[in-house]
């Protein structure tokens, strides 16, 4: 027999008929006030096992979302519950807020780790200043400027149709440097692509399809470089390979799926792989004028953004 929910005095509904509830994210940290119970999902930015004066263990935590951070303490079953999650995980907590030494904090009563598939990184990490819809429109327009069928197919595969397309819209560019926020990669890519369009007008001998395609996919490897929780961190693959090597694999696979001529595929890769420069850094070390252009345009946007956000020097 199916279990039932008793709703009121006379109404009985079979549980199978009830819709699955949406996971409640709870109040933002900026919305919390002292002396109130709360339940919500937050990133665990700090986790310390501490010992109280009476000798019992407790956890000192820092909960974080995109609106702020909150110090918290867990006294009951600290060691047992502490095994269920790590620093950097997103956790669902319940408890009560209070003023501790004049600062808002929380005493936590329960903690459950949130499954990765239920996490939206934009709930817990800083996001791009420009709207995703606006950036999406610019990206679509710039992709339309790649007229060569094979190059266009590679761009479409990676940025609009393939398995990394959604991750491309989430990824940052760096952990703490330029565009270090959710959506930063999309914002940076649009900026570099826009600079490519202007540069090709000034230098008509450049191959615009090649340069624009390379600009739009030059950082596609960043889709596999990061993980998201309380902060942006490097994935195991990101530590082992870095975005240049990850991107080279993604571009090679997309070129094969798209039937791109192998010689043009190699040329595209040669431009992308030089976007951080060459060793030694000399003009004759670059394989093409397009590679020089992408290196300079990428550096222009990245370095100006860094100066604006973090200062010069």
Concise summary:
With 313 residues, this protein is α+β, with helices and mostly antiparallel strands.
Written account of the structure:
The chain has 313 residues and is of the alpha+beta class. The protein folds into two domains: 29-118, Nucleic acid-binding proteins (OB fold (Dihydrolipoamide Acetyltransferase, E2P), Beta Barrel); 125-310, Hypothetical protein af1432, CATH 1.10.3210. 38% of the residues lie in helices and 21% in strands. The chain has helices at 78-82, 132-143, 149-161, 165-170, 184-202, 208-217, 236-240, 243-258, 262-272, 289-310; strands at 4-7, 11-14, 37-51, 57-65, 68-74, 90-100, 103-113, 226-228, 232-234. A hairpin with a 3-residue loop joins strand 8 (226-228) and strand 9. The radius of gyration is 25 Å and the shape is elongated.
